[in-house]
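Troubleshooting log. The previous run stalled partway through. Resubmitting the same two chains, unchanged.
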Amino acid sequence: MRTKWKRTLLTAVAGSLVVSLAACSEEGGDAGSGVNLDGKKTASMADYKAGTQFKATEPLDVSLLFLDQSHYPMKEDWLLWKEISQRTNITVKPTVVPYSDYDQKRGLLISSGDAPTIISKTYPGQEEPFVSSGAILPVSDYVDLMPNFKDKVEKWKLQPELNTLRQEDGKFYVLPGLHEKVQQDYTLAFRTDELQRLDLQAPKNWDEVYTVLKAIKAAHPDVYPLSDRFEGKSILNIAAQTFGAQAGWGYVKNSIWNEDKQQFEFAGATPEYKQLIEFFGKLVKEGLMDPESFTQKDDAAIQKFASGKSFAISSNAQNIINDYRPNVSKIPGATVAKIPVPAGPKGDVLRGSRLENGLMVSAKLAQSDKFVATMQFIDWLWYADEAQEFTKWGVKGTTYDKDASGKRTLKPEVAFGGMNVGAPKNLQRDFGFQGGVFSYGGPTELVQSMFTEEELAFQKTLANKKQLPLAPPAPLNEEERERAGLWETPLKDLVTQSTLQFILGQRDLSTWDAYVKELEAKGMNDYIELVNTAHKRYKEKNG
Amino acid sequence: MVTTDPTRVMERLDKPAGPRRTSLDDSPGYRVFRVVNTIVLLGVVAVTLYPFVNIVAQSFSSEVYIRTGQVNLVPRGFNLDTYKLVASDPAFWNSYLNTVVYTVTATAISIVLTTIYAYVLSKHRLKGRGLLVGIAVFTMFFNGGLIPNYVLVNGLGLTNTIWAIVLPNAISVFNLLVMKAFFESLPSELEEAAAIDGLNTYGILLRIVLPLSKAVLATMILFYAVANWNSWFQAFLYLDRADLFPVTVYLRNMIAGATSATSVGAVEANAVAISANIKAVTMVLTVLPIVAVYPFIQRYFVSGVMLGAVKQ
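Second attempt completed without errors. Output:
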């Protein structure tokens, strides 16, 4: 009897909630109007705004899903934890999950209704499976509680990028990491001593990459000058943006936005994609690129590079320091460096989003009396300038010093990366700072504050590049997502498989039209129509 | 016509029989088979041992030689520094200790429960025996699934305790059936005699049946201990604190974590790959106890599984 009554009440409450939420989305804003915060302000600060130090008015515990990295395993006595509680009056209770299987455990905890309040380390897109379950808070409704977040979005004009996160209901469910500028870490690395010996310049565009590889091949006819790692996905990714295509790591969805036609197209069938494949097919055919580049393990590629069996390989800043320099050191006089990201047929352009991985919030929090305080805490720890400096560099005077010009230096007894090598303590391992859960994004000045001179120079070359426009949102509703899901994977598999066959020369490019027919048979046109319909609907609804 | 001597006839009849039997062993075909067999089996041994020896060699080598692919069977740049480094990590020893505790406890619990269950099932006079067997076998084919299991274990308050590791799946149905078959093969006269001499059911089990079952017990201990030592999934699911993790989770995070950090791409700009030699040392140290124990239990192994496989 009682439970029946309870259920009726619950339905009524849920119903009214839907109505009020619908009313909210009709206003189309993130205003959070219609959200009743009465009784949820325990321990919160009444006058909290951007630039204020957040401190809960009474001590609170907040649970956090914590991704544990094996090279800096979580320790309970980290200065990081102590400082967070001291500054904010909030004690973080971490649920430690090993990096290796983080996604699985996150899914399990959310599905079992047992997720911690803050679910960290979530990449935009990873929240989608949980949206319909209602277990994740639609954070866009509550950004008013987060002045630092709002401030950065406004200051850095991030609203268009944020819009890409919106789901079919017009809300977004993940709080992303925010960057002031687009970062790109991956490019090609060359054996610079060999370039010098052959009197070659570092290539500035993909045509020059071709000629440089050709020159190296002429000097070493028995090797493949380029033997790549990452299964070729990195090089395809960085090349694709300058060809006006998407490939490799960038091939997340089958659709690509055509700015001229103002509509989505099938990414694996555009003329630009064909051009890209042609280019790499040429590299392989002329023996400039190792055909194993697309299948070999990273270690095998590194081995070839380190033993002088190849002269170019994909790289990020860390790969240079950890994988290449120490290992090529056995070859006398060998030097390695990243080249600026090459330009391509579409010019010196860069595609990228300024959003990074971020966090989700458990929907249960909205029912808690600590709701406001916790949201303020999240806003401060992840989005306030001061906190971003704190989670990256640690505590001023303890782990680092800052001079009058604002330049930060680690204390001599604290080591990190290439700084203070051999010092007894490590910023990550012994203090917990610079960890992936807390420290990402932020102002360019801060992001680059730990870069080496070499990396800073590399980042400068990116500054002159033209930024490509972002694809507008085209969120699918649940039924559409299911239909799209049936097409997505088979289409993607066919594209990946055929791309490899074309590049390796196992399939002739003259069969391109037949390939497009195969895609059509797998539902390419229906799929693209679905995406375009969703885009139009979103545009009508949200402008 | 010469009359034949019966004995010689016998001899003649006998003779072909003798050599023919031995010729089966010595026939060219069989000799070829033996040579081929030996070569194939040696090949299998090489294929099985090579990765292991390679890892051991890597664990004594320096990083540069491993990364340039120069370490095969013999360590290059021999050093013990990596062992010292891994041994100086308290987190490693802590998880190692956890593994020992979990393995010993879980194996003890499993052996007790499996023995009791199997012994009961081996008695044909037991009413509802078919149902009890059915319940056990049912779980081989159907289970609640990941999330319901998690909700159950969490609801029982077992998460973040050793019990979440040692209680679920304490009885392996396969092992249960092997043991049941073994108990069934014991002559019932033995137990009847013991009963006449005044032993009750427990006395019979403890003083007559178990002492006769050393072979199968050793096998079960081996099965359970190896499975528990190697298992990581339960621990990964039900434990949220790093100080409770067994060494398998530690190892998996080190290997899978490091490789996915470099292969997923822009996941973590500051991700540092764990050196190949540290991985190798951790693997060697993790597998060492099982490798050391195996030869001593292994002699029970064959007889233990075979016993009860055929009923007299």
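Takeaways: Chain A touches chain B through 49 residues (CB under 8 Å). Confidence is low (pLDDT under 50) at residues 8-33 of chain A.
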